[in-house]
Amino acid sequence: PPPLPPPLPSPPPSRLLSSPGGAPGGAPAIARPKTTIKKSVSSPGPGQPEQKVEIGKPQTRLVEETEDAPRYKVMLLFDDGYLEEPVTNRLTEVVDDLDKPSAQDVYRACEKRGSGMVGVYPLEIAEFYVEQLLRSEPMIFTELVKEGKAE
């Protein structure tokens, strides 16, 4: 029988996770959260032991800075076709932290001013609520407003 050809070399592990198809075995690669790391100069604080430091070389430590995710207001928009009962029922079904009296307050504020604030949430949750309310029967119109901006 003819001799078998030598086996192909396997790619290094770092290439497996960065391949377009994801991780080995068909599983998608897991995205790692990004953080900003900065170096800052510091000296030992009170109660900390003195450390030998070479002259001319400041002691440094790594400081991680994180930023809170932006938050968005979910605003209920007024529509002449709304009836209070179905709208408030659907609001309480979709929005986890909204009870019946709060939903009625939002509805009445919406009737009076043209819009009422349902709540303030991270972007993904706010988008989910807007999408679910839009798919309701009757359709419930809402909009997202970045927190800190006027209603």
From TrEMBL:
**From start to end residue, where is composition biased (Low complexity)?**
15-33
Top-level taxon of the source organism: Eukaryota
Q: Which InterPro entries match?
A: ClpS_core, Ribosomal_bL12_C/ClpS-like
Residue span of region Disordered:
1-61
* Biased composition annotated in UniProt, kind: Pro residues: 1-14
One Pfam entry name: ClpS
Q: What is this protein called?
A: Adaptor protein ClpS core domain-containing protein
Q: Which organism is it from?
A: Tetraparma gracilis
